Amino acid sequence: MYIKNSKIVAVKIGSSLLIDNNMKIRTKWLIEFSKDVKKLVDQGKKVIIITSGAIALGCKKLNLKKTSLKLDKSQAVASIGQIELMNLFKKSFNKVKLNLSQILLTLEDTEQRRRAINAKRTINNLFQLGFVPIVNENDSIATSEIKYGDNDRLASRVAQISSADCLILLSDVNGLYTKNPKLFEDATLIKEINKIDEKIEKTASNESGIYGTGGMKTKIDAAKVCQKSGCQMAIANGLILRPLDQIQKKNNCTWFITEVSKLDARKKWIISSISPKGELIIDDGAIKALKQGKSLLAAGIKKVNGKFNKGDHIKILNKNMIEYARGLSSFTSGEIIKIKGQHSNKIQELLGYTAKSEVVHKDDMVAI
Ligand code: GLU
Fold it and tell me: Is residue 94 included in any domain, yes or no?
Protein backbone atom coordinates (compact mmCIF):
# COMPACT_ATOMS: atom_id res chain seq x y z
CA MET A 1 0.00 0.00 0.00
CA TYR A 2 2.92 2.34 0.69
CA ILE A 3 4.33 1.72 -2.78
CA LYS A 4 0.87 2.10 -4.29
CA ASN A 5 0.38 5.48 -2.63
CA SER A 6 3.78 6.79 -3.69
CA LYS A 7 4.49 9.18 -6.54
CA ILE A 8 8.24 8.78 -6.21
CA VAL A 9 9.70 5.40 -5.27
CA ALA A 10 13.37 4.93 -4.36
CA VAL A 11 14.79 1.41 -4.45
CA LYS A 12 18.17 0.34 -3.12
CA ILE A 13 19.80 -2.79 -4.48
CA GLY A 14 22.52 -4.50 -2.44
CA SER A 15 25.53 -6.14 -4.10
CA SER A 16 24.43 -9.64 -3.08
CA LEU A 17 21.40 -9.36 -5.36
CA LEU A 18 23.53 -8.73 -8.42
CA ILE A 19 26.33 -11.17 -7.77
CA ASP A 20 26.16 -14.36 -5.76
CA ASN A 21 28.72 -15.87 -3.37
CA ASN A 22 30.29 -17.78 -6.27
CA MET A 23 30.84 -14.51 -8.13
CA LYS A 24 28.11 -15.36 -10.61
CA ILE A 25 26.10 -12.45 -11.96
CA ARG A 26 22.37 -12.81 -11.29
CA THR A 27 21.32 -11.69 -14.77
CA LYS A 28 17.87 -13.25 -14.65
CA TRP A 29 17.11 -11.47 -11.41
CA LEU A 30 17.98 -8.07 -12.89
CA ILE A 31 15.93 -8.72 -16.02
CA GLU A 32 12.94 -9.59 -13.83
CA PHE A 33 13.60 -6.58 -11.62
CA SER A 34 13.46 -4.30 -14.67
CA LYS A 35 9.87 -5.56 -15.17
CA ASP A 36 9.08 -4.51 -11.62
CA VAL A 37 10.36 -1.01 -12.33
CA LYS A 38 8.59 -0.85 -15.68
CA LYS A 39 5.31 -1.69 -13.97
CA LEU A 40 5.74 1.20 -11.54
CA VAL A 41 6.74 3.60 -14.32
CA ASP A 42 3.67 2.53 -16.34
CA GLN A 43 1.54 3.41 -13.31
CA GLY A 44 2.91 6.96 -13.59
CA LYS A 45 5.41 6.69 -10.74
CA LYS A 46 8.92 8.09 -10.81
CA VAL A 47 11.54 5.54 -9.81
CA ILE A 48 15.09 6.18 -8.65
CA ILE A 49 17.48 3.29 -8.04
CA ILE A 50 20.45 3.30 -5.70
CA THR A 51 22.65 0.36 -6.48
CA SER A 52 25.76 -1.18 -5.01
CA GLY A 53 27.88 -3.59 -6.97
CA ALA A 54 30.73 -1.53 -8.44
CA ILE A 55 33.34 -3.11 -6.18
CA ALA A 56 31.81 -6.59 -6.46
CA LEU A 57 31.76 -6.45 -10.27
CA GLY A 58 35.23 -4.90 -10.39
CA CYS A 59 36.47 -7.79 -8.22
CA LYS A 60 34.84 -10.25 -10.56
CA LYS A 61 36.43 -8.68 -13.62
CA LEU A 62 39.89 -8.70 -12.02
CA ASN A 63 39.42 -11.98 -10.20
CA LEU A 64 40.12 -10.40 -6.82
CA LYS A 65 38.68 -10.80 -3.31
CA LYS A 66 37.21 -7.69 -1.75
CA THR A 67 38.64 -8.47 1.66
CA SER A 68 42.20 -8.22 0.33
CA LEU A 69 41.76 -4.71 -1.12
CA LYS A 70 43.42 -1.57 0.24
CA LEU A 71 41.56 1.72 -0.20
CA ASP A 72 43.40 3.01 -3.27
CA LYS A 73 43.09 -0.37 -4.97
CA SER A 74 39.39 -0.62 -4.13
CA GLN A 75 38.87 2.85 -5.65
CA ALA A 76 40.40 1.62 -8.91
CA VAL A 77 38.37 -1.59 -8.69
CA ALA A 78 35.18 0.45 -8.19
CA SER A 79 35.99 2.54 -11.26
CA ILE A 80 36.36 -0.65 -13.32
CA GLY A 81 33.26 -2.23 -11.81
CA GLN A 82 30.99 0.80 -12.16
CA ILE A 83 31.00 0.56 -15.96
CA GLU A 84 30.29 -3.17 -15.71
CA LEU A 85 27.42 -2.38 -13.36
CA MET A 86 25.85 0.15 -15.69
CA ASN A 87 26.28 -2.17 -18.68
CA LEU A 88 24.45 -4.85 -16.76
CA PHE A 89 21.60 -2.49 -15.96
CA LYS A 90 21.47 -1.14 -19.49
CA LYS A 91 21.23 -4.59 -21.05
CA SER A 92 18.43 -5.66 -18.70
CA PHE A 93 16.42 -2.43 -18.80
CA ASN A 94 16.67 -2.21 -22.60
CA LYS A 95 14.44 -5.25 -22.73
CA VAL A 96 11.58 -3.31 -21.14
CA LYS A 97 12.53 -0.11 -22.99
CA LEU A 98 13.39 1.92 -19.93
CA ASN A 99 16.00 4.64 -20.30
CA LEU A 100 18.61 4.91 -17.59
CA SER A 101 21.00 7.58 -16.41
CA GLN A 102 23.90 7.42 -13.96
CA ILE A 103 24.57 9.68 -10.97
CA LEU A 104 27.65 9.17 -8.80
CA LEU A 105 27.57 11.02 -5.49
CA THR A 106 29.96 11.65 -2.63
CA LEU A 107 29.01 12.48 0.95
CA GLU A 108 29.85 16.14 0.34
CA ASP A 109 27.44 16.25 -2.59
CA THR A 110 24.52 15.56 -0.31
CA GLU A 111 25.74 17.34 2.83
CA GLN A 112 26.40 20.73 1.20
CA ARG A 113 23.19 22.54 0.48
CA ARG A 114 24.20 24.01 -2.88
CA ARG A 115 25.37 20.64 -4.15
CA ALA A 116 22.35 18.81 -2.73
CA ILE A 117 20.02 21.25 -4.52
CA ASN A 118 21.98 20.68 -7.69
CA ALA A 119 21.56 16.92 -7.34
CA LYS A 120 17.84 17.40 -6.69
CA ARG A 121 17.44 19.48 -9.86
CA THR A 122 19.26 16.91 -11.93
CA ILE A 123 17.06 14.13 -10.57
CA ASN A 124 13.89 16.14 -11.23
CA ASN A 125 14.98 16.86 -14.78
CA LEU A 126 15.72 13.19 -15.36
CA PHE A 127 12.25 12.31 -14.06
CA GLN A 128 10.73 14.83 -16.45
CA LEU A 129 12.72 13.38 -19.34
CA GLY A 130 11.33 9.95 -18.45
CA PHE A 131 14.70 8.48 -17.42
CA VAL A 132 15.32 6.26 -14.41
CA PRO A 133 18.33 7.61 -12.48
CA ILE A 134 20.72 5.00 -11.13
CA VAL A 135 22.77 6.26 -8.21
CA ASN A 136 25.89 4.89 -6.57
CA GLU A 137 28.51 6.40 -4.33
CA ASN A 138 31.44 7.80 -6.29
CA ASP A 139 33.69 5.13 -4.78
CA SER A 140 36.64 5.92 -7.05
CA ILE A 141 37.22 9.31 -5.47
CA ALA A 142 35.58 9.08 -2.03
CA THR A 143 38.16 8.54 0.70
CA SER A 144 37.42 6.96 4.05
CA GLU A 145 36.88 10.22 5.99
CA ILE A 146 34.45 11.65 3.48
CA LYS A 147 32.52 8.66 2.40
CA TYR A 148 29.18 7.05 3.09
CA GLY A 149 30.77 3.64 2.74
CA ASP A 150 27.39 1.95 2.62
CA ASN A 151 24.58 2.50 0.19
CA ASP A 152 21.83 2.19 2.83
CA ARG A 153 22.49 5.63 4.29
CA LEU A 154 23.25 7.03 0.84
CA ALA A 155 19.88 5.68 -0.33
CA SER A 156 18.05 7.39 2.53
CA ARG A 157 19.68 10.72 1.76
CA VAL A 158 18.94 10.31 -1.96
CA ALA A 159 15.32 9.42 -1.13
CA GLN A 160 15.07 12.57 0.95
CA ILE A 161 16.74 14.81 -1.67
CA SER A 162 14.54 13.44 -4.44
CA SER A 163 11.40 13.80 -2.24
CA ALA A 164 10.65 10.07 -2.54
CA ASP A 165 7.50 8.94 -0.73
CA CYS A 166 8.98 5.54 -0.03
CA LEU A 167 12.34 3.82 -0.03
CA ILE A 168 12.70 0.06 -0.40
CA LEU A 169 16.01 -1.40 0.77
CA LEU A 170 16.35 -4.68 -1.08
CA SER A 171 18.91 -6.99 0.46
CA ASP A 172 19.31 -10.65 1.39
CA VAL A 173 17.19 -10.49 4.55
CA ASN A 174 13.40 -10.45 4.89
CA GLY A 175 13.48 -7.54 7.29
CA LEU A 176 13.99 -7.02 10.98
CA TYR A 177 13.23 -9.98 13.24
CA THR A 178 12.49 -10.07 16.95
CA LYS A 179 15.65 -12.22 17.34
CA ASN A 180 18.39 -13.43 15.03
CA PRO A 181 16.45 -15.86 12.77
CA LYS A 182 19.62 -17.84 12.02
CA LEU A 183 19.98 -18.69 15.69
CA PHE A 184 16.42 -18.74 17.06
CA GLU A 185 13.55 -20.72 15.61
CA ASP A 186 10.93 -18.59 17.32
CA ALA A 187 12.20 -15.37 15.74
CA THR A 188 9.39 -13.49 14.01
CA LEU A 189 9.47 -10.81 11.34
CA ILE A 190 8.48 -7.36 12.59
CA LYS A 191 6.04 -6.02 10.01
CA GLU A 192 5.73 -2.40 11.07
CA ILE A 193 7.88 -0.13 13.18
CA ASN A 194 6.59 3.29 14.16
CA LYS A 195 9.33 4.31 16.51
CA ILE A 196 12.99 3.36 16.45
CA ASP A 197 13.67 2.87 20.14
CA GLU A 198 16.55 1.24 22.01
CA LYS A 199 14.97 -2.20 21.68
CA ILE A 200 14.82 -1.93 17.90
CA GLU A 201 18.40 -0.70 17.76
CA LYS A 202 19.52 -3.66 19.88
CA THR A 203 17.62 -6.12 17.72
CA ALA A 204 19.52 -4.94 14.68
CA SER A 205 22.73 -6.89 14.64
CA ASN A 206 25.69 -5.74 12.63
CA GLU A 207 26.34 -8.59 10.24
CA SER A 208 26.98 -7.77 6.60
CA GLY A 209 27.42 -9.80 3.45
CA ILE A 210 30.64 -10.54 1.63
CA TYR A 211 30.49 -7.57 -0.73
CA GLY A 212 28.01 -5.22 0.84
CA THR A 213 29.22 -2.95 3.61
CA GLY A 214 25.83 -2.35 5.18
CA GLY A 215 24.42 -4.55 7.91
CA MET A 216 21.18 -4.08 9.83
CA LYS A 217 22.69 -1.10 11.66
CA THR A 218 23.11 1.00 8.51
CA LYS A 219 19.55 0.09 7.55
CA ILE A 220 18.28 1.39 10.88
CA ASP A 221 20.33 4.57 10.35
CA ALA A 222 18.67 4.89 6.95
CA ALA A 223 15.25 4.40 8.55
CA LYS A 224 15.98 7.25 10.96
CA VAL A 225 16.73 9.60 8.07
CA CYS A 226 13.53 8.49 6.33
CA GLN A 227 11.42 8.98 9.46
CA LYS A 228 12.76 12.51 9.82
CA SER A 229 11.94 13.38 6.25
CA GLY A 230 8.50 11.76 6.11
CA CYS A 231 9.46 8.90 3.79
CA GLN A 232 8.16 5.34 4.40
CA MET A 233 10.96 2.79 4.31
CA ALA A 234 11.00 -0.97 3.92
CA ILE A 235 13.69 -3.57 4.46
CA ALA A 236 12.82 -6.45 2.17
CA ASN A 237 14.28 -9.59 0.71
CA GLY A 238 15.37 -8.86 -2.82
CA LEU A 239 16.75 -12.30 -3.61
CA ILE A 240 13.39 -13.49 -4.91
CA LEU A 241 12.31 -12.65 -8.45
CA ARG A 242 10.17 -9.52 -8.90
CA PRO A 243 10.69 -8.36 -5.30
CA LEU A 244 8.70 -5.14 -5.67
CA ASP A 245 5.69 -7.03 -6.96
CA GLN A 246 6.05 -9.51 -4.09
CA ILE A 247 6.15 -6.72 -1.51
CA GLN A 248 2.92 -5.33 -2.91
CA LYS A 249 1.25 -8.73 -2.96
CA LYS A 250 2.55 -10.33 0.25
CA ASN A 251 3.97 -7.45 2.29
CA ASN A 252 6.55 -9.86 3.66
CA CYS A 253 8.96 -7.19 4.89
CA THR A 254 9.56 -4.64 7.63
CA TRP A 255 8.08 -1.18 7.12
CA PHE A 256 9.32 1.82 9.07
CA ILE A 257 6.28 4.03 9.19
CA THR A 258 6.36 7.77 9.51
CA GLU A 259 3.84 10.55 9.51
CA VAL A 260 3.83 12.98 6.61
CA SER A 261 6.38 15.61 7.57
CA LYS A 262 5.25 19.23 7.78
CA LEU A 263 8.80 20.47 7.30
CA ASP A 264 9.78 22.14 4.05
CA ALA A 265 12.41 20.50 1.82
CA ARG A 266 15.27 22.57 3.25
CA LYS A 267 14.42 21.74 6.85
CA LYS A 268 14.05 18.06 5.98
CA TRP A 269 17.53 18.25 4.51
CA ILE A 270 18.89 19.93 7.66
CA ILE A 271 17.35 17.45 10.08
CA SER A 272 18.49 14.39 8.19
CA SER A 273 22.14 15.34 7.87
CA ILE A 274 24.31 12.24 7.83
CA SER A 275 27.46 13.75 9.26
CA PRO A 276 27.09 16.76 11.60
CA LYS A 277 30.53 18.29 12.06
CA GLY A 278 30.19 19.47 15.65
CA GLU A 279 28.04 20.15 18.70
CA LEU A 280 26.93 23.21 20.62
CA ILE A 281 25.94 22.63 24.22
CA ILE A 282 23.53 25.32 25.36
CA ASP A 283 22.00 26.42 28.68
CA ASP A 284 18.38 26.11 29.83
CA GLY A 285 17.60 29.74 28.96
CA ALA A 286 18.67 29.18 25.37
CA ILE A 287 16.61 25.96 25.17
CA LYS A 288 13.60 27.97 26.33
CA ALA A 289 14.25 30.62 23.68
CA LEU A 290 14.58 27.97 20.96
CA LYS A 291 11.29 26.41 22.10
CA GLN A 292 9.68 29.82 21.51
CA GLY A 293 10.98 29.73 17.94
CA LYS A 294 13.92 32.08 18.47
CA SER A 295 17.42 31.86 16.99
CA LEU A 296 20.41 30.62 18.97
CA LEU A 297 22.55 33.46 20.27
CA ALA A 298 26.12 33.31 21.57
CA ALA A 299 25.04 34.14 25.13
CA GLY A 300 23.35 30.74 25.64
CA ILE A 301 26.24 28.63 24.37
CA LYS A 302 28.25 26.84 27.05
CA LYS A 303 30.55 24.57 25.07
CA VAL A 304 31.64 23.82 21.53
CA ASN A 305 32.67 20.33 20.40
CA GLY A 306 34.32 19.56 17.07
CA LYS A 307 35.85 21.69 14.35
CA PHE A 308 33.52 23.13 11.76
CA ASN A 309 33.11 25.90 9.23
CA LYS A 310 30.37 28.42 8.55
CA GLY A 311 27.39 26.66 7.00
CA ASP A 312 28.30 23.23 8.40
CA HIS A 313 25.72 20.93 10.01
CA ILE A 314 25.87 20.90 13.79
CA LYS A 315 23.92 19.33 16.64
CA ILE A 316 22.47 21.51 19.40
CA LEU A 317 22.42 19.73 22.77
CA ASN A 318 21.08 20.65 26.19
CA LYS A 319 23.28 20.61 29.28
CA ASN A 320 22.54 16.89 29.76
CA MET A 321 23.92 16.21 26.28
CA ILE A 322 20.49 15.34 24.89
CA GLU A 323 20.12 16.45 21.29
CA TYR A 324 17.53 19.18 21.01
CA ALA A 325 17.97 20.44 17.47
CA ARG A 326 20.02 20.34 14.28
CA GLY A 327 21.16 23.41 12.45
CA LEU A 328 23.60 25.15 10.17
CA SER A 329 26.17 27.24 11.96
CA SER A 330 26.64 30.87 10.93
CA PHE A 331 30.09 30.89 12.53
CA THR A 332 33.15 28.64 12.55
CA SER A 333 33.81 26.59 15.68
CA GLY A 334 36.84 28.80 16.42
CA GLU A 335 34.70 31.94 16.31
CA ILE A 336 32.06 30.42 18.58
CA ILE A 337 34.70 29.53 21.14
CA LYS A 338 35.60 33.25 21.26
CA ILE A 339 32.04 34.56 21.52
CA LYS A 340 30.24 31.88 23.57
CA GLY A 341 28.51 33.13 26.72
CA GLN A 342 28.77 36.72 25.49
CA HIS A 343 26.10 39.23 24.55
CA SER A 344 25.60 39.59 20.79
CA ASN A 345 26.65 43.27 20.82
CA LYS A 346 30.14 42.17 21.89
CA ILE A 347 30.70 39.95 18.82
CA GLN A 348 32.31 42.65 16.70
CA GLU A 349 34.73 43.60 19.47
CA LEU A 350 35.63 39.97 20.20
CA LEU A 351 36.15 38.89 16.62
CA GLY A 352 37.47 42.16 15.21
CA TYR A 353 34.93 42.26 12.40
CA THR A 354 31.20 42.59 11.93
CA ALA A 355 29.23 39.37 11.81
CA LYS A 356 25.69 38.09 12.21
CA SER A 357 24.21 38.19 15.68
CA GLU A 358 22.63 34.70 15.52
CA VAL A 359 24.98 31.72 15.82
CA VAL A 360 22.28 29.47 14.36
CA HIS A 361 19.42 31.34 12.72
CA LYS A 362 15.93 29.99 13.39
CA ASP A 363 15.44 29.40 9.65
CA ASP A 364 18.52 27.18 9.67
CA MET A 365 17.42 25.11 12.66
CA VAL A 366 15.04 22.21 13.23
CA ALA A 367 14.06 20.77 16.61
CA ILE A 368 14.49 17.01 16.81
N1 GLU B 1 29.23 1.63 -3.34
C2 GLU B 1 29.71 0.30 -3.13
C3 GLU B 1 29.74 -0.47 -4.45
O4 GLU B 1 29.14 -0.08 -5.40
C5 GLU B 1 28.85 -0.51 -2.20
C6 GLU B 1 28.58 0.04 -0.85
C7 GLU B 1 27.63 -0.92 -0.09
O8 GLU B 1 27.86 -2.09 -0.10
O9 GLU B 1 26.61 -0.48 0.45
O10 GLU B 1 30.37 -1.48 -4.52
Answer: yes
